[in-house]
Amino acid sequence: MYPADLKYTKDHEWVRIAGAEAQVGITDYAQKQLGDVVYLELPEIGRQIKKGEVFGTIESVKAVSELYAPVSGEVTQVNASLTQKPEAVNKDPHGSWMIAVKVSDPGEASDLFDAAKYTELTK
Fold it and tell me: Which of these, 25, 106, 117, lies nearest to 68 by C-alpha position?
């Protein structure tokens, strides 16, 4: 259910790391808990984020939730199409990245969950 090429946080974000670059989004579990996503607030390109820090918010018909950075680094891209059509998160949460980050310390990802451990967390 959860892609094996991603790492996961206890706060239900995912990260796909390729070298020094990473993409970040929310998990299928998170989008199901939120319900219909209607708005995303994402950071500016160039912003420095720290692991565990709030980098944005996601709003659904049920609630507004904070988004937490799974790794530290500089925001290099923001998925503008997702801010215009935030409901895409509900349709394809693991394919709908929100931000891309130039990772400052790849070792930070070592304590994130793999797909099997994340599945256990969400049971």
Answer: 25
Task: Give residue 60's pLDDT.
Answer: 97
Concatenated DSSP letters of the chain: ---TT-EE-TTSEEEEEETTEEEEEE-HHHHHHH-SEEEEE-PPTT-EE-TTSEEEEEEESS-EEEEE-SS-EEEEEE-HHHHH-TTHHHH-TTT---EEEEES-GGGGGGSB-HHHHHHHT-
Domain 7-108 has CATH 3.40.390.10: no
Q: What is the pTM of this model?
A: 0.96
**Residue 120 identity (one-letter amino acid):** E
Q: Say if residues 89 and 82 touch (Cβ distance below 8 Å).
A: yes
Structural domain spans, the chain? 7-108
